[in-house]
């Protein structure tokens, strides 16, 4: 069995069909269909029941799915072992939420380069929820996410505490401004919605944007309000047009954690990231 066939089989199960799987795998439907057909021929067993346009796992498919998860995880772990990061060699795949990547991550990468000169760095930004999934599936070696994180396959190390503040445009005294938030999966979004409920801030209007600067730019124009770490606001190019307001501590205080897989090999570069992140100071931190 080829790993590409197993990944295709897993995608069909997870996405619920050939079309959705082809989109996820960035290939055409015929490739997905042919890979599944060849896999069934190789195993001599039907993996799916065809019901109209839908698919349902056959008993043999359920058995294969269990082994597929194990085999693909083993493949990822084997890749990690080959890439094992020593003092001066290897590769480290780092994920980061955009807010952390804006100012905190660059000096950490510089420190990492200085301490591990031969290490190749790969960096990807995404929402915290997506980063958790990618680390748990061995697609990233570690990631900085908004916490807390409770996942059976991951180790989460708190590196700092952020203070979220309510952000509005200066001199904008509208009572019920729309909330401007990151998309689903962002830790700050979840905390903002919790603040909205507890504060009785009832407005049906909401805007979703994918970038930090886009959110604060819209807030600066008076289009809405948001919750954001204090240091981000004070260091943003729109800061002169913004004002901040403190919120209740149980909503304001949110940890940033570095996560990595429980079964991953020890990587000295990750220890360096943790140490440097804990020691780092950015103007506007408290």
TrEMBL record:
Task: Provide this UniProt record's keywords sorted from A to Z.
Answer: DNA-binding, Transcription, Transcription regulation
- Residues in domain HTH lysR-type? 1-58
SUPFAM superfamilies listed in its UniProt record:
Periplasmic binding protein-like II (SSF53850), Winged helix' DNA-binding domain (SSF46785)
Alphabetically, the GO molecular function entries are: DNA-binding transcription factor activity; transcription cis-regulatory region binding
Q: Per UniProt, what is one Pfam family of this protein?
A: LysR_substrate
The record's family statement is: Belongs to the LysR transcriptional regulatory family.
Q: What name goes with this protein?
A: LysR family transcriptional regulator
